[in-house]
């Protein structure tokens, strides 16, 4: 056996103690009293070999397993849709909170202006009876006209940006129509054979 000598540094009340351990063979003890490692109860080896036996699945477990496999594509689709719509919903909720806060501390004269703009939209809806195109054009047009009377600077910026976008869309449409015209009507193979060309 080995004799263990321990020296600790620092008071015993401290939780972190540094110490050195020295081991030396014990010369006065006989070797017959020593215990082997495999004789300790901590290291005892079980008598027989254990074997894992899987319990048979019950009808309830089988039903739940089939249900989980059946629902897995739908749950993954729902998780994907949730992860896609969560940022949009958070921004929508934030916009709603900001709008609510703005309406709570609205500048003076805001609500009468809002009432006039809304009334212009209702007048546009009444004047647009009968035609679906008029119902799409008149209410926003009248509301835009009323809003431009109260907010002229924002209306000018809106008209400039909208004009640039409309010009860009028109230019793109012109290019697409021109390409289609060249592909379909100006190909040399599309010239029909007349009786004089035979």
From TrEMBL:
Record's keyword annotation contains Magnesium: no
Compartments it resides in: Mitochondrion inner membrane; Mitochondrion membrane
Name of the featured protein: MICOS complex subunit
Keywords: Membrane, Mitochondrion, Mitochondrion inner membrane, Transmembrane, Transmembrane helix
Superkingdom of origin organism: Eukaryota
Organism: Ceratotherium simum simum
Lineage: Eukaryota, Metazoa, Chordata, Craniata, Vertebrata
Entry annotated with the keyword Glycosyltransferase: no
Function of the molecule: Component of the MICOS complex, a large protein complex of the mitochondrial inner membrane that plays crucial roles in the maintenance of crista junctions, inner membrane architecture, and formation of contact sites to the outer membrane.
């Amino acid at each position: 056996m080995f004799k263990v000598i321990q020296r600790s540094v620092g008071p015993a009340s401290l939780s972190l103690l540094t110490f050195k351990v020295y081991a030396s063979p014990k010369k006065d003890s006989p070797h017959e009293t020593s215990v082997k490692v495999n004789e300790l109860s901590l290291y005892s080896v079980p008598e027989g070999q254990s074997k894992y036996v899987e319990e048979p699945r019950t009808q309830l477990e089988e039903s739940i397993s089939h249900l989980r496999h059946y629902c897995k594509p739908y749950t993954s689709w729902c998780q994907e849709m949730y992860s896609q719509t969560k940022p949009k919903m958070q921004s929508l909720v934030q916009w709603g909170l900001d709008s609510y806060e703005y309406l709570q501390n609205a500048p003076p004269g805001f609500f009468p202006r809002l009432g006039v703009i809304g009334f212009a939209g209702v007048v546009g809806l009444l004047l647009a009876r009968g035609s679906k195109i008029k119902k799409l054009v008149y209410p926003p047009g009248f509301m835009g006209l009323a809003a431009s009377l109260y907010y002229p600077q924002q209306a000018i910026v809106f008209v400039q940006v909208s004009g640039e976008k409309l010009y860009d869309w028109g230019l793109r449409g012109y290019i697409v129509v021109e390409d289609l015209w060249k592909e379909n009507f100006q190909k040399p193979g599309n010239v029909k054979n007349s009786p004089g060309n035979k």
